[in-house]
Amino acid sequence: MGGTLRRLSSRSRARLHRIADAVAGRVAVALLKVIRRFDRAWVSDAAAAFMRRVGPLMREHRIGRANLKAAFPDKSDAEIERILTGVWDNLGRVAAEFAHLDQICHGDPMKRDFIGYDDASVERFFRLRGDGKPALIFAAHLANWELPAIIAHSDGLPTTILYRRPNLGAVADAVIAIRAGHMGEMEPTGLQAPIKLGRALQQGRHVAMLVDQHYVKGVEVTFFGRTCRANPLIAMLARQVECPIHGTRVIRLPGHRFRAEISEEIAPIRDADGRIDIQGTMQAITSVIEGWVREHPEQWLWLHRRWR
User: Fold this and answer.
1) Residue scoring higher pLDDT (107 or 120)
2) Are 64 and 272 in contact (CB under 8 A)?
């Protein structure tokens, strides 16, 4: 009798989970449709104001404060709180902008109202697009981290994007449906991802991924003077295919605008035999990201446990 009740209870919980998942997915889709009806600048400002007020009440605020104090021991409490306010402001804007990603990147890349480029980045982009060779591209959770992939697809750079599905299935489906029409090929994280990404590089495509989050089985790197773990996949792919590595980022500017950049080629670190050293190359990439974050600390996602 007890076993039967436990099975029924387990089935009921699974059914409730499926229902909650489906409801969450529908709510997410409906919310994005509503947001899309509003002016992008207005809804971005509203979401930023909301998160500046609500964010400090959440546990992630304490995580962000601890991270910032460890990363910037010379900054005052007031400076730390100012940066955190900017982090919440940016996060609210990212959420609001998700419904308007295609509009932000619409039109002639050299005449866009909302995105500007420096001359060096334009030259690198056209070289990557036209040389017929594969390349690896890394990004970080800075400003609106969805935009680099949107820009690449809009401007004709054949790219395969590695992504992690949100935990809720229906929400994940809603998010992927929005991304699918505006990004390149999308490959979910998993056991088959390294094989498929390596195959994409061998076909001359560009493979891109975010590389600034904690990875349990990662290699040790130093970030803001502290040891953390980084996913070594991008360095492993570079060793396998021997192709250039570039970083890309967007910087949030006043007036609801952005500047997009592609870094110069990041030279991989090699061992005594000339092979790409995985840990050393990940450290080189992590150091580039640290430099970006130091420039605009309020635009990075300090709210997660990067150091564990």
Assistant:
1) 120
2) no
